[in-house]
Structures are given as C-alpha cells and as structure tokens.
Amino acid sequence: MRMFFAVLFIGFFGLVTAENAAAEQSQRLPRIYPGAPPFIPHDVEARKGLCLTCHETGVAGAPIVPHPTRDPVCLECHVGQDRTAKPFKSETKPLKQ
Amino acid sequence: MARSNLNRRDFLRQTITLAAVSGISPSLFLAREGEAEEAIVDAWRKAPCRFCGTGCGVLAGIRKGKIVAVRGDPEAPVNRGLLCIKGYSLPKILYGPDRYTTPLLRQGGDFVKITWERALDLMAAKFKQASEKYGPESVGAYFSGQSTIFEGYAINKLMKGGIGSNNIEANARLCMASAVAGFYSTFNMDEPMGCYDDFELTDTFFLWGANMAEMHPMLFSRIVERKRQDPNVKIVSLQTFINRSAESPADTVMVFKPHADLAIANAMAYVVVKEGLANETFIRKHVNFKRGLTEIGYGVEDGFEYGGAEPSWRTYRPFADKGEPAVYEDYKKFLEDYTPDYAEKISGVPAQTIRDAARLFGDPKRKVVSLWTMGFNQHTRGTWINNLLYNLHLLTGKIAAPGNNPLSLTGQPSACGTTRETGTLAHLLPGGHLVANEEHRKEAAEIWGVPPEKISAKPGYHTMELFRAFDRGDVKVLWINTTNPFQTLPHAGRYRRGARRGGERFLAVSEVYPSETSRHADLILPSAMWIEKEGMFGNTERRTQHWMKMVDAPGQAKSDLWQIVELANRLGLGKLFDYGAEPLEKSLFEEYRKFGAGRGKDLAPYEVYAKVRGGLRWPVVDGKETRWRYREGHDPYVKAGEEVRFYGQPDGRAVIWLRPYEPPAEAPDGDYPFWLSTGRVLEHWHTGTITRRVPELHAAVPFAPVWISPDDAKALGVETGDRVRVKSRRGEIVTRAELGGRNTVPKGVVYVPFFDETVLINLVTLDAFDPISKQPDFKKCAVRLEKL
Asked: Which site among A32, B121, B293, B656 is 20 to 30 Å from B366 CA-CA?
C-alpha cells in the first residue's frame, strides 16, 4: 500500500520531486546542535500527511526515519525552513505613540 | 546541591530501564534512535521547559558556562524523553544578539545606559511618591505565568503585605482566569482533579477547541500514541476551523460557528439526560444544581461591574457566581430549549453529529477525558462554558476517576504554580486565600509578619481595568515583568497610547530582549532568564518542578527575584525578605508552603523538589503525590467510605449550573463581515520575544499571515501571498494572505497568530471580557478584509 502511494506520489509530482529531492539532498540543513532533530529542507504543507511515503524506505535518497510510528506528529519536532526569510531584527528605539 | 549529571551511557540505560519498568510503549522514548552524533557537554542538569504549561522535563547540556544542547528527560513522566521543536531550541533563546545587559532610561528619543543603583533608586522613588501622594492603589505590578514560584510569591508579598496595594496581576488573567472561575463556581476549589496519567487509561478524548497538536505537542503525542496502541480509542475534535488537531487521527471533527460551544454543550447534556445516559446515583450523591445570573454584559466599558449594583467585582467574592439553588427537575426543564436541532441552527454542526458525540460521551462502557484551553477560556462566557463542560462530566459521573476526567490545559509554564497558587491576582493571597476574607488576611499577615490592617480587603484592579486605570491616570506607576502586554492586550491601541500619555505616569519594564512593551517603558531592567537563575514552575496537572541556576546571565542582567528584593530594600521593606543566613529561595518556598498545608494544597519541602527529577503533583502528603483528587484511595483528603468528595464545597457536592446560550459581544455584520480569531503557532512562543531570536524558529514561521478560506479569497480576488488589510472598528493591520498551509478556515472566518510584532493583530481585537472571570475574548470580533 505504502509503495502504491509512493509510486502515485512520484508520478504526481514527477520531475519536481525527482529534481528537488536531488537538489535538496545536497542542501541538508545543519542541526541546532548534535542530537537535535533535523530540519526539513523541502516544502512541508504541500506534502502534508505524506512524510512516510519517502521517509519510511528512503525514496529518492530521503533520510529514513528511525521512529516511523510517530508519523502523525512529525511536524512537532521537524519543521521547515524558509531560506528566503530575512533575519529577524527587532526595533529597539523608544515608542512615543 | 542536587545535580543531575548524566553521561551518554547512563542516559540510554535509564531510558531502556524506564521503558521496561513502566510498561509504556518504547516508541515514545526512541525519538533519538539512530543518532550517532552527540553534543559534547560537561554536565546534563534537570529543568522544566521554559515554554508552555505542559511542563516537559529537559536535561540541559552545559559546557564551559553555556548551555549548548538539551534533551527530553527520559525520567520526566510528562514527556518521557521527547520534546517539541521549541523545547529543542531552548539553548538558543539565551543568546540572541540584542539581549538587554544594562538598565536603560528613556531620555528624549533614546534609551541610555544607567547603573542598577540609579535605576532602582528611581523606581523606588516613583513608587514612594505615588503611594504617598495618591495612596497605594496608584501603583501596580503586572507579572506573568512565566514568573517563577519564588518571584510570584515575593512580588505578592511585597505588593499586598508591604506596599499595601492589591494591584498585582499577571498575564495569566488573559490565559486561564475563566478556567479558575469555572473551578471555583463548580468545585469551590481551583485546579484539575485528574492528570496526564488519564491519557493512557481513557479510551475517549474530547478536544474542546484546543489545537493540542501545535500548542501542547507532547501531550498530543501521548494521545496519538494511545490511539496507535488501541484502535478502539476515539478522538472527537471540536474546532472553529480545521487545524492539525482536526486531522488524522481525529475520528470525529465538529467545526462550529464561534461562540456556539455554549449551545453544543447544552445540547449534548440534553441528549445524555433524554436518552438515559445520566449516572443517576452519582448525581444523587455528589451533585447540587444552581441557576446563575443571566444577561451579564461584556465588560467593554471602563469600571464595568458585573451584575449591576448588587454582586459587584469590588464587593462580591470574585471568581464565583452567586447562584440560586435549583433542583434536577429545573435543570431538565432548562435543557428542553437545547435540542440538537436548536444547537445545529446556532452552531452549523449537524444535529446527528451532536447526538452521536453525546452518545459517545455518555456511553457507560467508555471513559472520557476532555481537554480545552484558550477556546473556552478566552470567551465572553468563559466561566459558563467551563461550567457546561463540568456539567457533562458530572451528569455521567465521569470525573475524579482514573481515565475519566475533565482536564483544563494551561498555556504558560507556571500559570498554575505561580499565578494561581502563589496568588498573583488582584483578589488572591497565596494558597487559595482571598483578600476579601478577614480570616485569610489575618493568617497571611501572621505568616508574613506584618500588621493585618496592612493587607487591604478590597480587591485591586483586574488586568483590563488596571490598564484602563493607567490610561485614565488613576494608576501612576506600573512595573511590568516577564510579559508583553502592549502586544497582547486586546484593543491594544488604547493601552499603548495610555502608557505614553505623560503626566505622572511611570512605566518600568523588566525584559530580556526589546519588545513592544519595553519600547513603551521609561525604565528598562535587564532580566536573567530560565536557567540563568534558580526557579520553580507548576504545570497543568498540579506538578511542581525545580531547577538550579546553571549559567550566568549576560552583562549586568539580574534575576527578577533580585529586582523585587532590591526594590523592597529601597522602600524600607527589606525585612520582608530578610531570612538571615538562610538561602532566599529556599526560605521563601518554606514560608509559602505554610499557606497550603492541611488545606488540600500541601507541597513537599524544598529539598525534595530540588532533588526529584520531573517534580511532584500536589497535594503531597506524607511524601506521596496525588494523581486523582476527590477520589477515595487516591486523595488523602477523602475519607474511607466517602468514595468521592468534592471537598472544596462545604457539603462535598459539585455544582451543575444552568447556563444559557447568550450571543457574543460582537458578531460579523454588513460592514465587518468576518469573524477574526487569534492564537499561536507551534514554532513561536506568545509574542515571539524569545523564539524569534532563534534563527531556525524564525525561518520556520517568519511572519504571521492571515488565513482566509478559499471561497472568501476568491470573492476578494486574493491569492496566497497577496497583501491584505484586516480592519475592525478599533484598528487595522496589513499582512499576507494564506489560503492553505496548516489551517483551513471555513467561509466567513479568518485567523491571525499574535506572535509577530510587525502584524500587531491586537490593535484589531476587542477588549470585551467574561464578567465573572474578567478574561478577555481574543477569539471573536468582527473584521473586514481589503485587498491591497
């Protein structure tokens, strides 16, 4: 069943997935510190609920998840990264109103 | 000094042993399985997480005086070795480049560095001047559910026992006041009877508006794991839009119109009673019925007093409704109006779905755990909806028993431990004592060593009225600590302007990073945070946890407790905190413990908490924690043969309240046709003051969008990423539209998170509140959208 979805998934996203997977492979993101959960280097929401499709068996070089039973809650620990986001910088001057 | 130093091998061994001993599925422990990499640290030391009210245990990895890594503590019963991404990011929250490291004074258009000496002298002078000229009611302190127990207890003692002002409030008023009012009116005693152990013992979960998948992730993990192990487990998720808690693995999803929960809960009670699912024996033995006031208003006017001239906030005991006695027959008659068909009309949820949910709830073969947070509490009828939920558990007798409980989830790490238990609210004294009660004042004065007349019998200003008083000029001097009200107060524009009206107003703010509130200040005090100081927190399930100071605060940043004591010294009140050679934190805790001892709020000695990993749940009697209150065999306060006793009430009976549906304070109309709901996202904590300093959390959710339904977006010609103005009668913001992603809102509803200081959605929200709890409603007001 899983395999069926994997095939369907690859079929669906076709080139996008194959190309991105390869590109993203080289962009594996640094962890906050050794032992911290890895970040997700691809869009998260478009593949909502499909994490195990690739990460259970390592489709297209995807990292294999060591704890597959936790699949409904992947996004509690593993989050995406918008690398186009400008670094956060707060205003510091007093507000007058 | 208790330390928790663990090496890698110990860590693994403990993990495996604990899994084997506890019989819990090992999968919860194996989040890090396969990890070869390991942070290099000098020591792993225990602390509770600094974020939400779940109260996860972490092990902080310290190396060369800095925290460099964390791990979920495998010995912590709450999270069993696992953390969410905010928890894993803890090491980075301390080291943002713009930490405050010296006191700063507003001078012209800038903040200039000053010494602690000058800062504290100035603050003390302002407190003194205002108190002498206008009386102690002209000064106030606004603290936090993120303050430690030591800090909460100390500021309460200083304000109420020293300065003589009951104007001490906490941001927890915005977060759980309705939960407290619900507990008081139904049980006459605060805080849950159940605990997280119920998750593994129940087979039916009701999520009442709580998006636990994002806001209480580790608890949601336990629910998901429970369902994985037993497919018979059912999850019913009631929400106002589809979020991560309304997807897999929820079995039933009920998306209702905002505010309609009042009708749904009554309709479920209707079905329970009509279909003979009520537990008549339990009702006969353990329940009273009461009818409360109706048409109680919405608190939008200054000086609003609940219930007209009679039972007002000032004179009547707050956090409880007066209530006229009623009988079961009255209640049955009252329920006649709440047919599932009527509830369908109000809520948009099919009557059959409501009926099925009620049958599931009432099924005598099932155990039920109910969970809720801000959806219920941030509600102009927040106390009522808490009562209505308790009604269902009392009707079915599914309460105060292993696996059968209503569990009010807390938002902040110590809203329970600090705000509710040490009493940093305008009407409270520590340990559930009340300022309006003469006996309680006497007892407090004796413990504090102050004359009883020092403690005022008049409750201070509740949060909304405190900030209205600051705007009006009735309060002159305000100290804000560990919270960011000028981003979080509803209708924030008024209170932001009020803070800078000048005159004799003086605003001191203790903060760690620049915030919307610190930027309004006259004086900024740089604070130490989390493991830069010693602390204790109390979580949702009555669990008290302790941690030691592990690293130094940067520059001249000082703990908030140090700041409280230094202010007291300068006000001539240093004796309140003079414990001779004894350590201050331990002395404060041992003194505080006296308030709850023998009253159902017994705490263990300080040393026990310093030592024990994962903390203990009160009442702790004879060294034993309590998992289920009010139940014989579990709660030492319930005598043999009593079975169940709600001993907060003099007759031991909890109250089923007749609470009607009443309309919300503001609803969409032709000019403002959309409902606005606000809230959080998983990756950010509250106003983002600390989480936005973690580059990875910032990159995960860099800004707050407005979620719009695809239908509404189409009508407006808006696509994801387009700029949209969100406007109400009070203010407006501009941000980008989001049609998909993690939330799917129904037509007519929009959702904006409040963490983003460039999208100040609380300029738009309405400052209506629940007249009983005084907690504002951040989930419902009317807005219009304009495409830019």
From this structure: B656
- Check: CB of residue B678 under 8 Å from CB of residue B754: yes
> How far is Cα B525 from Cα B512, in angstroms, rounded to an integer?
8
The answer to whether residue B412 is catalytic is yes
If phi over 0 gives left and psi between -120 and 50 gives alpha, with beta otherwise, what is residue B511?
Answer: beta
d(CA B104, CA B115) in angstroms, rounded, equals 8
Taking the C-alpha atoms of residue B532 and residue B561, their distance in angstroms, rounded to an integer, is: 12
What pTM, to 2 d.p., does this model score? 0.94
Which listed residue (B123, B159, B176, B212) is catalytic?
B176
Question: CB distance from A30 to chain B under 8 Å?
Answer: no
Q: Indicate the residue type of B81.
A: G
- What's the complex ipTM? 0.92
Closest of B229, B233, B235, B258 to residue B247, by C-alpha = B235
Residue B294 burial by Cβ neighbours in a 10 Å radius (0-12, 13-18, 19+): exposed
**Taking phi first (over 0 means left), then psi (-120 to 50 degrees means alpha), and beta for anything else, what does residue B775 get?**
beta
Q: Does B683 touch chain A (CB under 8 A)?
A: yes
Interface of B with A in 755-774 (CB under 8 A): 757
B563 classed as catalytic = no
From first to last of its 97 residues, chain A has per-residue pLDDT tens of: 444 444 444 434 433 444 454 454 447 899 999 999 999 999 888 888 899 999 999 998 999 999 988 888 999 999 999 989 999 999 899 997 5
CA angle, corner B744, sides to B742 and B749, nearest 5?
A: 130
Name the B residues in 474-533 with CB < 8 Å from any A CB. Answer: 496-497, 499-500, 513-516, 519-521
Nearest to A81 among B82, B693, B699 (CB): B699
Q: B260-276: buried (b, 16+ CB within 10 Å) or exposed (e) per residue?
A: bbbbbbbbbbbbbbbee
Residues of chain A contacting B113 with CB distance shorter than 8 Å: none
